[in-house]
Amino acid sequence: MQIIVEQSVGWNSSLHINFIDYEKAFDSVDWRRLWKLLQHHGVLEKTVITIRNSYDRIQCKVVHEGQLTDAFHVRIGVRKSCLLSPFLFLLVVDWVMKTSTSEVKHGTQWTAQNQLHDFDFADDLALLSHTHEQVQMKTASVAPTSASVALNIHKGKSKIPKYKTKKLNQSHLIAKLWKM
User: Fold this and answer.
1) Fewer beta carbons within 10 angstroms: which end of the chain, N or C?
2) Burial letters for 64-85: b for 16+ Cβ neighbours within 10 Å, e otherwise?
3) Looking at the DSSP assignment, which residues form a beta bridge with residue 129?
4) Into how many domains does the chain fold?
5) Does a structural domain hold residue 65?
């Protein structure tokens, strides 16, 4: 993110970032949609079936009031201890971003010819734009698409800081970013 802020300083442009936090992100992924996305991206059917079979057998028990409950099947979410889980989650987030922002192309200048529209890392998502209105439009588009794959934006933790790179010096701007 520091490089993105520095680049905005270099281009002398405003930067608005919506840091989106999904509620229980890894625990919420809809498996049916995930299997379809794997197939859509050309993952071999045999591989999709293998991944699906490893998820279909997940059972949990919960301690409630000192007693262990009966086992129940888990039908959503990606495993936190699995090396494949970040890839699976980002596949879903990538689909959300491509689907929801295909019509809304207001990013921040990255190179002379290219704009950067979003920044995704693990379960963190940042929507980038030059104006508050544009980042709000992106958010309004991302929210229902995210919900369609059982990812709900945590309204209390998501925030839109504004960086006026035209009026702030670079060191102050970067210090402000790291305090978030």
Assistant:
1) C
2) eeeeeeeeeeeeebbeeeeeeb
3) 16
4) 1
5) no
What is the residue type of 43?
V
When pLDDT is cut at 50, 70 and 90, the band that residue 109 belongs to is low
As a whole number, mean pLDDT of residues 99-118 equals: 73
Alpha-carbon distance of 5 to 166, in angstroms, equals 12
Query: Does 52 fall in a domain?
Result: no
- Which residue matches tokens 């701007």? 173
Residue closest to 153 by CA, chosen among 138, 165, 166, 133: 138
Element (H, E) at 115: strand 115-116
Closest to 119 measured CA to CA, from 7, 42, 10: 7
When pLDDT is cut at 50, 70 and 90, the band that residue 144 belongs to is very high
Average pLDDT for the chain: 79
**Beta bridge partners of residue 128, listed in sequence order:** 17
- CATH number for the domain including 160? 3.30.70.270
